[in-house]
Amino acid sequence: MIVLIALGVYVAAGVAVAAAFVAFGVTRVLPEYLPVTVGARILLFLPGAAMLWPYVLARWLKSSR
Question: In the chain, which ranges are continuous DSSP H helix?
Answer without folding.
Answer: 2-20, 26-29, 38-40, 46-51, 53-63
